[in-house]
Structure formats: C-alpha cells, structure tokens
Amino acid sequence: GGKDRRSGLILTIPLCLEQTSMDELSVTLDYLLSIPSDKCKARGFTVIVDGRKSQWNVVKTVVLMLQNVVPAEVSLVCVVKPDEFWDKKVTHFCFWKEKDRLGFEVILVSANKLTRYIEPCQLTEDFGGTLTYDHMDWLNKRLVFEKFTKESTSLLDELALINNGSDKGTQQERERSIDLNFLPSVDPETVLQTGHELLSELQQRRFNGSDGGVSWSPMDDELLAQPQVMKLLDSLREQYTRYQEVCRQRSKRTQLEEIQQKVMQVVNWLEGPGSEQLRTQWGIGDSIRASQALQQKHEEIESQHSEWFAVYVELNQQIAALLNAGDEEDLVELKALQQQLSDVCYRQASQLEFRQNLLQAALEFHSVAQDLSQQLDGLLGMLCVDVAPADGASIQQTLKLLEEKLKSVDLGLQGLREKGQSLLDQISNQASWAYGKDVTIENKENVDHIQGVMEDMQLRKQRCEDMVDVRRLKMLQMVQLFKCEEDAAQAVEWLSELLDALLKTHIRLGDDAQETKVLLEKHRKFVDVAQSTYDYGRQLLQATVVLCQSLRCTSRSSGDTLPRLNRVWKQFTVTSEERVHRLETAVAFHSSAEKILQECPEQPEAFNEMEQFDEIEAVGKSLLDRLTVPVVYPDGSEQYFGSPSDMASAAEHIREKMKLVSLKKQQLRQPEATTPEG
After folding, report:
1. φ/ψ (deg, to 5) at 413
2. Which of 52, 57, 46 is nearest to 20 (CA)?
3. What is the CATH number of domain 506-669?
4. Residue 193 class from Cβ within 10 Å (0-12 exposed, 13-18 middle, 19+ buried)?
5. Is the predicted pLDDT of residue 663 greater than 70, yes or no?
6. First-to-last C-alpha distance (Å) of the chain
7. Does the model's pTM come out above 0.70?
8. How do the domains of the chain map onto residue ranges?
C-alpha cells in the first residue's frame, strides 16, 4: 500500500535465515506484480529487499532474479543491510556499476537511512515508518478476493451456459440444455453473500481510519478490487436473476409434468383396472346373502378407488394453485388436464354410486321378498292345520288373525312390487353407460330373476288367498254352527224356564167363570210362546245337522240338545194339558155354580131336577181331587203345581163355592117339604 516519491508502488521482500526457494519467490513475485493495473505498473516499482536477517549471497541472487522477473517495472531496489555489514566480498560487486545491465538502480542502505529515499508515512514500522499494514489481514482479504473472483467467474460461465441454453428456440432444446447444465457447481447465494461481505469490508477500510486515528490510504490493489467485486456482483445478480427465472420455469414445467404424469396415472387406472373391476360386477344376487356378498366386494372396489380419488383431490388442489398463479402460457394445458381428470373421476364415482345404489336396492328387494316368503309360509302353515276351535269366539279370533295375516301379505306383496319396479328402473338406466360394455344379456338375467320372484310370490299369494276363502267359508259355517248350537241350547233353557213358570206361577183357577176364562186365554197364549220356542229350537238343530254335514264333522253339543228339547217339550205339553184341563173344569164348575146361585127362588120349576146340584158337586169334587194329584211325566217323574199352600188356597175357594151351592140346594128343598102339608 506504500508509494515512493514517484507514486510508484513499493514492493517489500523480507528475507529470513532459512534457505529461500527462488522458484517460490519467483512465483510469488509474478503473482504480486499481476495485481496492480497497467497504469500503476507504468509508474514503476520500488523494491525493498530486507536482508537484515539473510546472507549476502541470497540478497544478490534475489536482486539478480528481479532482472528476469520485472526488469521493466522496477525503478529502484533498496537493499536494507544489517547493522554489521557483510564481508568484503560484497565490495567486489557494485550494483551501481551494473545498472545498465540490470535495468534498475540498486542501493545498499541501513534501515534508519531508508527514509532518505521513501517518505516515512509510506514505510511500515519495520523500517521506521508509520504506515499501518497487517500482512495476515491483507493475505486473508486477498484469499477471499481470489476465491470470490474464481468462484464468481466460474459461476458466471455456468449460469450463462444455463441461461443461454434456456433461450434456445424449441422447448425440447431448452429442456435438453437445462438438463445437461442445470445445477451450478457452487451455491449462487453463498457466492453473492461472500462478495457482499468482501465489498463491505473494502468500502469500510476506505472510509475508516486506523486504530491510531491516522488517515490511511487504501492500497491500489484494494481500490482495484472494489470495482472488480462490484462488477462481478452486478453480473452475478443479473445472471442469477435469469437463472432463478429459468429454475422457476423449470420447476413449474417439472411440476406440470409431474401433475400430468400423475393425472395420466389416475386416468389410466380408473379407465383401466378400475373400470374393469366394475365391468365384472354386474349381478345383483338371488338372495340377501348373495347381495351382501356383492356389497362387500363392491366396498373393496370402492376402497381401492378411494385411494385414487384422494390423489385426484390433491392433484386438483395443485392444479388450482397453478391456475391461480396466472401463467397464461400453461392455463390452457392446466385446464385441459383438470377437465380430463374431473370428467374421468366424476364418471367413475357416478358408476360406483350407481352400483352401490343398485346393490342396496337389490338387498332391500330380497329382504322384502324373504319377509313375504316367511309370511306366506306362516299363512300356509296356518291354513294347513285343521280348525278345531272350542267355541265361536275362538273361531272369530282365528278368523281375525287369518284376515290380518292376509292383509299383511297383501302389503308385503305391494311393497315387493314397488321395490322390484324401482330395481328394474335402475337396471334399465344402467344401459346409459354400462361400464363401456353391452349389458343386455346380464340385465336380462337380472330382470328375469326379479320378475320371476315377483310372479312366484304372486302365485303363492293367490294360492293362499284361495285357501283363505275356503277356510273363511268353513270357519263362518263353524261360527254359524256354534251359534245354532248355542241358540238351540238357549231355546231349551227358555222352554225349561217356561215350564218352571207354568208349574210355579200358573196356579190360580179364578174366582168366577169370567176370570177363569181369562186365565184360560192367557194360558193358550203362553202355550203359543212355548210352541214358538220349541219350533225355533227344532229349526236350529236341523240347521246344525246340515252344517255338520257340510263341514263333515259331528257336533259336540247337538247330540244331547235334541233329546233335552223333546223331553222338556213333552213335560211342558203334559203340564199344559193338565193346566188346561183344570181351567176348563174350573170354568164348568164356576159357570154351573154361578147359574144356580143367580136363579130366583120364585121359579122352583127350574130346580125340579136335582141332578144339576149333584153334577156341580161332582165337578167340584173332581176339581179338588185334581188339585191334589201331581203331574206325571212320560219318564215317570212327578211335579206339583205351586206349593201345598197355594193348592190349599185354590181348593178352599172351590169348597166355599160348593158350600154356597149346597146351601142353595137346601133352601130349595125346604119349600118342597112344606107345600103338601098345606
């Protein structure tokens, strides 16, 4: 960094006690002299050879070497001699006499006399000057500069090759060029950072003073390095910006190619193996278990598809992000990829959903068919069991249950038809896309199966309906049979009640002929009621016989009902006849007695014949005798009218009337006795 009085650069060569390699020194000098600019070199160099720690032979060799290395640039060589001068041999070699041959002036000077030729401010402390200089710092900076220069120059060449390759005509050529020279040998960011740090250090040394506060003038090499570094940095930034754009384009292109490759993978799988899986799955099964197995197989297919659909979602997001970036160049291609991917995925998803809905509809159809079949089996089993109810109520309950089962079968068949028609409609829609194949044959098998199931259920239901009609008729006849038997038994009860009422309440014989005739008329009406009851019972029993013949069964109750009815009717008939006879006898008795008792005594001629009185007495006695006699039934059993007190009351009334008749007879006899004496 120091300069001589001609503004030439000062080059210091420190020599040491160790052996100095002239080759290394020559290389070093060549390097150092290559640093200054040509303008600086034209002003010449002042070389200080510090020989204070070396031998004269080495110093002389170095000076002579300068003639070969830099003869034109060196203007002055100052050899700093030690305090104790070398031996006398040095005197035999006078450098000033060799000036013409050497091309530069050589002087021997001690360190403290060096300021005669060079200003102290341009000398370092080693030579008694004030110039601040740190060789290790300079060396480190120089190494950084050299490294930066080398790396940046190499990087610029690589980036230029990459960038120029990207500017070629066709896309294929650009991609081929980028593929060959895509990655630089060094990291551009690192090189740029190194350059900025170096430039910052150089600029800082230019404007800052030394530690002692003395103004420091930077060396020419540093001044020269700053524009070099700035120029390299500008070039690097330009090329690196272009390189980043190339990388971005390449990254975008690579991403686009990856997306395109993945899209084709998804499309190829969905249109290939995915569609083939669906093509092989066309059946609907012939039972619940078969449909469930097909559903399980379909779920496995859906599971495989879901993995590809997940890839589709990811790709769609990536494509959307690229579309939002707004690169016009790739918009058409991206939209085409997105449309192609969406079309294939949606079509495949629709086919999967259709297949799932079809299998679900088939499962529901088979489920309804199975339930209906079980209902028909239950109904048929109920119809095949012979009816042996205990009474009409149980028959009615069984008939109601039968009707409910038939109604349930009707609803089940209606539901089966609805499910079947819905399934047929879905199958007919399958032909619109059909997994890319003709499914007419497969659809025909499915359609035939569905229609066959519905027709079979319809036939089974029709057979059950026919059997239900027969069973309904039979059960209604049985209900009627039980009703007839119940009503016939009721008729027997009614007739028994009439008989009991006749014996217990129809006791009075009347106080006079008129009352007795009224009782006789009421009794005849009472008998008509009993006759109607008996006839009703007979008709019911005849109806049970006809129903039993129709049902081909024997009644459990009509067998003893008819004898009971006939027995009660005979008892009633006998009792009724006895009652009629007593009433008729009472009418005759009261009529005759009332006639005699009502005739006037002035007409004795009417009583000339006493036989009338005797007849009345005979009728009265006969009536009294009947009141004491029980009614004898055909089976030999006996039954009295009323209680003994009731009979005694009726007999007492007859006796009183007989007494009146007897008194009347006596009164009529007295005039007959007095008339002859007169």
Report:
1. -70, -40
2. 57
3. 1.20.58
4. exposed
5. yes
6. 221
7. no
8. 9-132, 144-164+187-207+216-270, 276-476, 506-669
